[in-house]
Write a structure and sequence with these properties.
The complex is a heterotrimer of chains A (167), B (797) and C (300). Chain B has 797 residues and is of the alpha+beta class. Chain B is built from 18 helices and 34 strands. Classes of the chains: A alpha+beta (167), B alpha+beta (797), C alpha+beta (300). Chain A: One of its GO terms (molecular function) is metal ion binding.
Chain lengths: 167, 797, 300
């Protein structure tokens, strides 16, 4: 069957078998290997991507089910050379070690901050509670997301407008 | 010795730390990881690559009657189906384990654990490979399994390893350490003796990335390139040469980014070998990556020790002696990864942090119909089990004596002036100063206040527990006179090259699985030669690119490879001195070093930086006799002793009296790992280990039913803590450098995994004291805690 | 990695279209909504449908609205495709049926809740599934549509046992209706081995207080302890009585007798019976407290 979807801002159309899992479509068909998989049973959250802005576990979504939808993977987080504050936060606060769960964690963090720009630590812990990290013990991930909350990207045009308003 | 402070970063204030040497700095590997540009084994795609999948045994013990692969071979996407008899013809059906046993690559005669490898399919893609597995028809003659290690040596127990000639039982080894007669004598005259059976159940390292390989055999020049999830690429290359008959110089093992290891990726699994066979048979690259159930059911587990502990003391709380008999379940093949002379690893460090008069332990290893392994999951070669035993026994003694467990520990610590300390089972502890570390943890916890709070809560019927663990690790294996794996000495090499423009590359034999080697090792070099870490590339994970060494496990990277890197940097620095002297037309002994530069004593304005010296070395400067034209060096480091990091942990739990649910409220960890290279990375290592400890103490277990079916074969049943089960860690540190390590560093990778489980269990048992509970085994799940409250503590196995 | 066996896929465009597709493809077709129960089963090849009918485009079934069904009876109508996250975040749900919010907070994890639907949960009918108990306790009505039109089923009729419902192969659960009661309160509590795990045991209760403060109406349900109906035994004991600790203790005792749990990795039988007792007391306590605190008027 044929599916068309938008991934990281690019429209793609591909012929696939109906049973292809979204995670395999992303990794094997589109060669975006930043999305990992870790458990098969939708427990670990390593495969999290954003579907229409919401985190989903791509090992438990068929590629066919994503037809017509918008997908964001870790490769779509940065805007060219400008990192998403979440990516910056993970580097600043040592929110990663082996890097395997990191893409999924960062995408959940991005969705959380879009929804709730100033989350409490417990809200952050709840948001990532469907994802397992074996390396960090989570505290630094929480700090990384807090760092991102404290350092939002402010688009240049917004700053100008603010100044104009103030003036 | 300079003590480096942990400095919380404050990038908002422009505080981007850029230490030239030790100190907090962001990791050099992170930019690729946060962009999704890490490069893991499953990300590798080679031209024409095929995919392998393994058919696994559904039962624990069965004679293989027949395999019919006809239908699978007829599948249009299938290139090959390999069975045990195919491997037998190639002489590859059995492979040596890391403990001098053999392990079946594919079953030829008998299935010995559920999930064992039976056949290997090679197909166009993973979907076709998976489909073809269903088309293989296998007939089994099911046999009674040995599931309970306690029954493995019963007369008449089924003999699991009838493949071994003359084998009539399931016994693997007996091993002992310490002086039995001396220990028995101390016990006989002691005021107080306390006994307890303590079970450390089977757990699994379960890194987020499962194990996998891509094998690429070039038949024309007989060269094998093997991309593997391995913590020990060089050791694997040697073993592959031994197993496959491919000459070692024709094998290149590449370990790219590794998604966590924790010991799981030390061993050589049948899947790796099958990928190689698949590539040889089909003439194409073959990828094999296991799924999570395969990882949990068939790869190296950890622990599975049934320990009978006994502790002897005077009535006023002087601990005199410790003894234990251990029954070790090694599964169907003895495949634990440990130094040859130590079949129970370093378990005989079970005397812990205490000054004892005597100690003795015996360990008996047995086969059972379970997955092989035994040393994995950040255990420092069984120090985990040892620390758990002694720290539980000390708490049980404290209860018996009605003493505060902190006070009892303080009273019995090895004193600072006793180091180097020879314990009663053959170790020489390099350095230690335990009391300040213990006191700092108590201060951070507000220990006395916690005890007051607990007293008040008990009066209200609330269950609060405070658990202490004081551990001494033994890591950095190890001296070649004592330690080898399959005859390979446990040394590590390092090569350092300074390029003409003063940028450097250091090549190391150890393999990061997230520990941040690319940063830490650059910092070690930077500290020694004064080139910024950003200008030093760390190359690892490729046997063609790096010197030989035994890899990363047992917290050995910093103690062994870190020493090699420091020494190679010093060698380069010394060489630079001669070249600088030539450039400055003075004598080497007239030069003085400051970080990054040799200058003339008495005239600091005259000197040469490392970059200038590097250009000089590669340029036209007339070099002194015996100095060749580069600024390179290499060393292989043979550690004179192990290192002995230590720490004091305090855990505070609240137990719901109605449901038995345990909540870890606080966890205070004070670690002493000697010299601290990058405090941020150290803290991260500790956080991760503490989470492991909470996981093992509260929820992680690989259980089996009576038929030998694995009950922990997915993340639905093998539970790992999420962010909701762990607190915001409170960490502190003291610094007691190792006297024999070039920079005084001791290693920290496994300290917290080793040290934290007893703190959590001690806290749970402390919370349950009003119910008369003296001990309960892990995992402290709600049901098991409730049963303990009913007076029904039971071992998990 | 685990991979499903081959199947054909079709996306339904409307309820009528979904019913037509079910009719056309027959017994070997399965409906998929969130997919977090079905797809893992398919990956293990324990489920092997020939056709998968994706109903995620049935936005017409994604709604929460308060409606009047009789002169004096208001209901909350929950479309079958309403995601767990929507239920969890709804202020109306929290205000009217805190038991739903309590339960949603402990169903799987936030990311699974983004996909999972109430219809999918009820139709899966897993004995450890939380919303089935909640719907039993709230005396919800399942609206099922098929070729012959709509049927209204009580939860007792709908839920036939573990993994079994009254929804025929050619039918679709389209809505869950929950009656709104005045002076009522409800609560759910679950014991789990870890966040996101299935229940070791759980209990839910719904209480309406009479004007004199006694218990007017009550329902108690249990999850994962072998009882796929409400604990009707407690009703006679509770109704007409003032809510007291003694009364809750008796209700807990009856609940522990009524259930029929099995020993498994989550615990032995007596522990689960104990939890039935303990959790029944807790949810009754919370439900009565909430009922007493609830403002009697309901903004429609």
């Amino acid at each position: 069957m044929q599916i068309s979807l938008t991934i990281n801002g690019t429209d793609v159309t591909r012929e696939i078998e109906p049973r292809v899992l979204l995670v395999h479509f992303i990794r094997d068909d589109l060669r975006l290997t930043g999305t990992h998989w870790g458990c098969d049973t939708s427990n670990c959250g390593t495969c999290v991507v954003l579907m229409d802005g919401q985190p989903v576990k791509s090992c438990t979504v068929l590629a066919a089910m994503a037809d017509g939808h918008t997908i964001t993977t870790v490769e779509g987080l940065a805007d060219g050379a400008t990192l998403d504050p979440v990516q910056q936060g993970f580097m600043e606060e040592h929110g990663l070690q082996c890097g395997f769960c990191t893409p999924g964690m960062m995408l959940t963090a991005r969705a959380l901050l879009d929804h709730n720009p100033h989350p409490e630590p417990l809200e952050i812990r709840e948001a990532i509670s469907g994802q397992i990290c074996r390396c960090t013990g989570y505290a630094t991930i929480v700090r990384s997301i807090q760092w991102a909350a404290e350092h939002p990207l402010v688009a240049a045009v917004d700053t100008t407008e603010d100044e104009e308003v103030r003036a | 010795m300079t003590i480096l402070e942990d400095r919380p970063s404050n990038p908002a204030a422009g505080d981007h730390d850029r230490p030239i040497g030790h100190g907090r700095m962001q990791r050099k590997e992170d930019p690729r990881f946060v962009r999704g540009k890490g490069h893991y084994v499953d990300d590798i795609v080679l031209p024409g690559m095929l995919h392998g999948a393994i058919l696994r045994a559904p039962v624990a013990h069965a004679r293989l009657v027949s395999i019919d692969t006809t239908a699978a071979l007829a599948h249009p996407g299938v290139h090959a189906v390999i069975t045990g008899s195919d491997l037998q013809a190639l002489g590859l059906a059995w492979a040596p384990t890391l403990s001098m046993d053999v392990q079946a690559v594919l079953v030829t005669d008998k299935v010995r654990f559920q999930g064992q490898e039976v056949a290997f399919v090679v197909a166009d893609d993973r979907y076709a490979a998976r489909d073809a597995l269903e088309l293989i028809q296998v007939e089994y003659d099911v046999l009674p399994p040995v599931v309970d290690a306690r029954k493995a040596m019963d007369p008449g127990a089924p003999v699991i390893r009838d493949d071994l000639e003359g084998r009539t039982d399931n016994h693997i080894f007996d091993w002992e350490a310490g002086d039995k007669a001396e220990t028995d004598a101390v016990f006989a005259s002691a005021d107080v003796v306390v006994k307890q059976e303590i079970v450390y159940p089977r757990v699994h390292p379960a890194p987020m990335e499962t194990c996998g390989a891509v094998a690429d055999f070039d038949a024309v020049d007989g060269r094998l390139t093997l991309y593997e999830t391995t913590q020990a690429p060089h050791a694997h290359r040697t073993l592959f040469a031994m197993v496959s008959g491919i000459p070692e110089h024709k094998i290149r093992v590449v370990s790219p980014d590794i998604g966590g290891g924790f010991g799981n990726k030390v061993g050589i699994y049948p899947g790796y070998i099958l990928a190689v066979v698949g590539s040889i048979v089909t003439g194409k690259p073959v990828k094999w990556v296991e799924d999570r159930s395969e990882n949990l059911m068939s790869t190296s587990f950890a622990r599975d020790y049934i320990m009978q502990g006994e502790i002897a003391a005077t009535k006023d709380g002087k601990i005199l002696a410790l003894r234990t008999n251990v029954l070790a379940d090694h599964g169907a093949f003895n495949a634990t990864a440990q130094p040859t002379k130590y079949p129970a690893g370093f378990f005989h460090i079970f005397t812990g942090s205490y000054d004892l008069q005597a100690a003795h332990c015996t360990v008996t290893g047995v086969y059972t119909n379970k997955a092989p392994g035994g040393v994995a999951y950040a255990c420092s070669f069984r120090v985990t089990e040892a620390v758990y035993l002694v720290e539980r026994m000390v708490d049980i003694l404290a209860r018996k004596l009605d003493m505060d467990p902190a006070e009892l520990r303080l009273k019995n610590f090895i004193k600072k002036e006793q180091f180097p300390y020879a314990n009663k089972t053959g170790w020489e502890y390099d350095s230690g100063d335990y009391e300040p570390t213990m006191r700092l943890s108590m201060k951070m916890a507000g220990y006395d206040e916690l005890r007051r709070e607990q007293k008040e809560k008990r009066e209200r019927g609330e269950l609060m527990g405070i658990g202490i663990s004081f551990f001494t690790e033994t890591v950095g294996a190890g001296p070649r006179k004592d330690m080898d794996i399959l005859g390979l000495g446990m040394a590590d090499g390092a090569e350092l090259r300074i390029h003409p423009t003063g940028k450097a590359v250091v090549r190391i034999s150890v393999q990061s699985q997230g520990q941040g080697h690319e940063t830490t090792f650059a910092q070690i070099v930077a500290e020694e030669i004064g080139i910024p870490p950003e200008d030093i590339d760390v190359v690892h994970g490729d046997t063609d690119q790096t010197p030989f060494g035994l890899g990363t496990y047992g917290s050995r990277s910093t103690p062994v490879s870190g020493a090699a890197v420091a020494l190679v940097a010093r060698k380069v620095r010394e060489k630079a001195r001669f070249i600088a002297a030539a450039m400055l037309e003075t004598r080497p002994e007239d030069l003085k070093w400051e970080k990054g530069r040799w200058f003339v004593k008495g005239d600091p304005s005259v000197g040469k930086t490392m970059a200038e010296i590097a250009m000089g070395a590669h340029g036209t400067v007339a070099l002194p006799e015996g100095i060749d034209g580069n600024l390179d060096a290499e060393v292989t480091y043979d550690p004179p002793n192990l290192t002995f990091p230590f720490g004091a942990y305090i855990c505070v739990v609240d137990v719901d009296p109605g449901t038995g649910h345990v909540k870890v409220r606080r966890f205070i960890a004070v670690d002493d790992c000697g010299t601290r290279i990058n405090p941020m990375i150290i803290e991260g290592q500790i956080h991760g280990g503490l989470t492991d400890g909470v996981g093992m103490a509260l929820m992680e277990i690989i259980e089996f039913d009576d038929e030998g079916n694995c009950l922990g074969g997915s993340f639905m049943d093998y539970l790992i803590p999420t962010a909701m089960e762990v607190p915001d860690w409170e960490t502190g540190f003291t610094v007691t450098p190792s006297p024999h390590h070039p920079i005084g560093a001791k290693g920290v990778g496994e300290s917290a995994t080793v040290g934290s489980p007893p703190a959590v269990v001690n806290a749970v048992v402390d919370a349950l004291a009003p119910f008369g509970v003296v001990h309960m085994d892990m995992p402290c799940t709600p049901s098991r805690v409730w049963e303990a409250m009913q007076g029904r503590t039971r071992p998990p196995v | 990695m685990q991979i499903p066996a081959p199947f054909d896929y079709v996306r339904a465009s409307s309820v009528e279209n979904a019913l037509a597709l079910l009719d056309r493809h027959g017994p070997e077709s399965r409906v998929v909504a969130g997919g977090h129960s079905l797809l893992p089963m398919m990956k293990l090849r324990l489920a092997r449908p020939d056709w998968l009918i994706d109903i995620n485009d049935l936005f017409e079934l994604d709604y929460l609205l308060i409606d009047r069904v009789l002169v004096d009876q208001h209901v909350l109508r929950i479309g079958a495709m309403t995601r767990h996250t929507t239920l969890l975040e709804s202020d109306d749900v929290q205000r009217l049926f805190p038991i739903v919010t309590d339960a949603e907070r402990v169903i799987a994890d936030p990311i699974v809740r983004n996909r999972g639907t109430i219809g999918g949960s009820l139709c899966q009918a897993d004995p450890a599934e939380d919303l089935s108990t909640v719907c039993h306790v709230l005396e919800a009505v399942a609206v099922v549509r098929g070729p012959a039109g709509e049927r209204m089923l009580s939860m007792a009729e709908f839920h036939r046992g573990p993994y079994e419902t009254a929804v025929a192969q050619n039918e679709l659960l389209i809505e869950v209706r929950v009656p709104i009661r005045e002076r009522s309160g409800s609560a759910y509590e679950k014991v789990e081995r870890r966040v996101g795990d299935w229940a070791v045991a759980a209990a839910g209760a719904s209480v309406s207080l009479a004007s004199d403060g006694t218990i007017g109406q009550v329902a108690v349900g249990l999850t994962a302890v072998g009882l796929d109906r409400n604990v009707t035994e407690v009703e006679a004991v509770l109704v007409g009585q003032a809510p007291t600790e003694e009364l809750f203790t008796e209700a807990g005792r009856l609940a522990s007798i009524a259930c029929d749990p099995l020993t498994d990795q989550r615990g032995p039988v007596d522990y689960k019976r104990h939890l039935a007792d303990e959790l029944t007391r807790r949810v009754l306590r919370a439900a009565c407290r909430r009922a007493a605190a609830s403002v009697s008027e309901i903004t429609i």
